[in-house]
Design goal:
Elements lengths: L2 E11 L4 E10 L3 E5 L6 H8 L7 E6 L2 E2 L4 H5 L2 E4 L11 H8 L8 H10 L13 H13 L5 E5 L7 H14 L6 E6 L11 E6 L2 E7 H7 L1 E5 L6 H4 L2 E7 L2 E6 L2 H8 L4 E4 L2 H10 L1 E3 L2 H7 L6 H27 L1
Parallel strand pairs: 3-8, 3-9, 6-7, 7-8, 12-15
Antiparallel strand pairs: 1-2, 1-4, 4-5, 9-10, 11-13, 11-14, 12-13
């Protein structure tokens, strides 16, 4: 399978953050979701791919070429969509297109105007009057109008309402009908990837947690819910992250089948979502109690909030107990 992007042993050191030995690859014709919490290293990795900052080690190949020695050739075939607008806001799309076109040998003016039409972007309206969602769609229109084979998107749906987010995702899904194009989609909104991503690369604290096919990840990871009485040393070794309270625990495992075989009917084991995988991996082990919730609350937060949390925890505990009871009965 041809690799359109290959990152190997990538390293970048800052005073308070290190991107450490990052490696992943994206095959041609697929969408890769690049996930992680804010500050995990997603934007730094993208800047390194685009050669906007100098790397301290490792190798980056795009279209099989070194991203530094073949930078100009590579960038002509990359479409980049930032999380913010970087075009002249006093200009209209018609005026902006005339400025951008000379920079790309493969610029397609008919495609550009076609995207403006299909994305419902007014050609004669100043960009500064566009909504955030319209600006994102405009950036995507530009990215797709010069024959880009790789589209890199850095948090493109952040701050957008659900309607605009859905539109952007539909556009990407349609784009991938052309099996020669690929998308690297950086986001912390994991639900955006449930519909469109083929691969997921998860970065946390500057290191890769995993990089694999999305379906394989969701098949292997599981969420386990049960009584605290189950939590001996052997059981704890199953978990990547765990959340405990006086009413029970919820934990993430990388081996859902192993957890089912070991725990059998003593706990509820369900498939985990990408959001749950990211949450439990980042947070690790967390313990909650009503006392700590009450003592640690801000003076601005009313005690009623603690009561609500308690009721939610009790409700979850009741639901879990009933679910386990019904399993035994039937």
């Amino acid at each position: 399978m041809e690799k359109i992007l290959e990152v190997t042993g990538l390293r970048k050191e800052y005073r308070d953050f290190t991107l450490n030995n990052i490696s992943f690859s994206l095959p041609r014709g697929y969408i890769m979701g690049f996930i992680g919490p804010n500050g995990a290293g997603k934007s730094t990795t993208i800047k390194l791919i685009m050669n906007l900052v100098r790397k301290d080690g490792g190798e980056i190949k795009v279209f099989g070429l070194d991203n530094i020695s073949h930078e100009l050739e590579i960038k002509k075939k990359i479409g980049f969509v930032y999380d913010e607008n970087h075009y002249y806001e006093e200009l209209t799309p018609l005026e902006m297109g005339d400025i951008i076109a000379p920079f790309y040998s493969r610029w397609d003016d008919a495609a550009y105007h076609g995207f403006l039409h299909s994305f419902e972007l007014p050609r004669a309206k100043k960009i500064k009057h566009f909504s955030r969602g319209m600006k994102t769609k405009y950036s995507l229109a530009v990215a797709l109008s010069h024959g880009a084979d790789l589209v890199i998107m850095d948090e493109p749906t952040s701050g957008l309402d659900p309607v605009f987010r859905r539109e952007i995702l539909d556009i990407l899904a349609e784009l991938l009908q052309d099996e020669q194009k690929s998308v690297l989609f950086s986001t912390h909104i994991t639900s955006d990837l449930d519909r469109i991503a083929d691969y997921i690369t998860f970065i946390n604290r500057g290191e890769i947690v995993f990089s694999a096919e999305r379906d394989a990840i969701l098949e292997n990871y599981g969420l386990v819910k049960g009584s605290n009485a189950l939590l001996d040393a052997t059981i704890r070794q199953l978990f990547v992250g765990i959340r405990e309270s006086s009413f029970g625990f919820e934990a993430l495992t990388r081996d859902i089948q192993g957890a089912r075989n070991l725990l059998k009917e003593r706990a509820v084991v369900e498939k985990a979502t990408l959001e749950e995988i990211m949450l439990y991996t980042v947070k690790g082990e967390v313990k909650y109690s009503l006392k700590s919730l009450y003592l640690e609350q801000s003076p601005l937060v009313p005690a009623a909030v603690v009561v609500v949390v308690a009721l939610l925890l009790l409700g979850g505990s009741f639901f879990l107990s009933r679910k386990l009871y019904l399993r035994k009965e039937f």
